[in-house]
């Protein structure tokens, strides 16, 4: 008795060949059906290849881009055109999207009545000094933690990152007392630019960003500079700084914008009216100014930060993602 096992639809005397055909002239095996690939997207590539799919895709894309652009740009447009209107037209209901009569009188009055030139000069001094001190101290600290590897460096970095978990309002009173009476030196820094510069430079987030970027710099590059006799300071200035422009641009934007728009801290440490920043100066005189003049002052105060953004904007994404991947 034969021990061969016969399956339905296939004879025991005609086994399949490696090519898929049965020996002995039997019938061929049916080809398998292609497996449908599932795409986890709203529109699959197959639908995009059709005219109807492309039309729907472009309609949705244009509507989305225009909607998000309008949501971000419209407040700026409303602020710029509102300064060109009279107070009555600015408060009219329903509002007008275009001024009935274009006029720059609101900007002229804002510049003269609020003394925006002096306020802009004070704020530029605070932002510029904070930017320089931030680059000096934060870059040096990040370079030391990344490449020099000091004793207890990880502990110091952990303590810096721990400060990011503390709400700013919680440390505002201790920071104010420190500025009013600096420990060991007993200096009173109120009404001086140092009250703005030193807290701005003591930023753990900037140190963390810079350290992550410095970690991605090849060690061989620094060792080659050491062989040539360069000191650590020389390596930082001549090797590390030139290739760190993306992250330096990001840190520059964050520092300048934070100092420029800050309100509560300058209000505490700069009580003298002659040394006010522009945000405090506009807020203190807002109740005495017509509404169109107030809006014009806000437009003028926003121009420097917009200029800084356009200067460094190409470094934003490059700097924020730098150091996240190695290799």
Automatic annotation (TrEMBL):
Signal peptide: none annotated. Pfam families: BPD_transp_1. The keyword Cell membrane applies. Residues 1-38 are annotated as: Disordered. InterPro entries: MetI-like, MetI-like_sf. It is found in: Cell membrane. One of its GO terms (cellular component) is plasma membrane. The chain crosses the membrane at residues 55-80, 124-145, 157-176, 196-214, 235-260, 293-312. Residues 1-16 have a biased composition (Polar residues). GO terms for biological process: transmembrane transport. Keywords: Cell membrane, Membrane, Transmembrane, Transmembrane helix, Transport. It is a multi-pass membrane protein. PANTHER family: ABC TRANSPORTER PERMEASE PROTEIN MG189-RELATED, ABC TRANSPORTER PERMEASE PROTEIN MG189-RELATED-RELATED. Belongs to the binding-protein-dependent transport system permease family. This is ABC transporter permease. It comes from Planotetraspora silvatica.
């Amino acid at each position: 008795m034969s021990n061969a096992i016969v399956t339905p639809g296939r004879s025991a005397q005609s086994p399949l060949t490696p090519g898929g055909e049965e020996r002995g002239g039997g019938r061929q095996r049916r080809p398998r059906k292609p497996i449908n690939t599932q795409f986890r997207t709203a529109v699959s590539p197959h639908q995009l290849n059709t005219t109807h799919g492309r039309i729907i895709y472009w309609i949705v894309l244009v509507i989305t881009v225009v909607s998000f652009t309008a949501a971000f740009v419209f407040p700026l447009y409303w602020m710029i055109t509102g300064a060109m209107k009279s107070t009555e037209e600015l408060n009219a209901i329903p509002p007008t999207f275009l001024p009935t009569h274009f006029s720059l009188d609101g900007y002229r009055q804002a510049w003269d009545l609020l003394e925006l030139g002096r306020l802009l000069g004070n704020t530029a001094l605070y932002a510029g000094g904070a930017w320089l001190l931030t680059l000096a101290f934060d870059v040096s600290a990040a370079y030391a933690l990344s490449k020099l590897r000091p004793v207890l460096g990880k502990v110091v970095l952990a303590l810096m990152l721990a400060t990011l978990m503390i709400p700013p309002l919680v440390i505002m009173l201790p920071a104010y007392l420190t500025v009013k009476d600096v420990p060991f030196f007993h200096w009173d820094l109120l009404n001086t630019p140092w009250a703005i510069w030193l807290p701005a430079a003591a930023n753990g987030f900037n140190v963390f960003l810079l350290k992550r970027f410095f970690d991605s710099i090849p060690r061989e590059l620094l060792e080659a500079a050491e062989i040539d006799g360069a000191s650590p300071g020389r390596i930082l200035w001549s090797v590390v700084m030139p290739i760190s422009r993306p992250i330096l641009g990001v840190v520059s934007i964050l520092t300048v914008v934070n100092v420029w728009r800050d309100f509560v801290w300058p209000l505490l440490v700069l009580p003298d009216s002659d040394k006010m920043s522009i945000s405090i100066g506009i807020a203190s005189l807002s109740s005495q100014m017509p509404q169109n003049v107030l809006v014009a002052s806000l437009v003028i105060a926003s121009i420097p930060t917009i200029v800084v953004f356009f200067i460094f904007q190409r470094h934003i994404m490059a700097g924020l993602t730098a150091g996240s991947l190695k290799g």
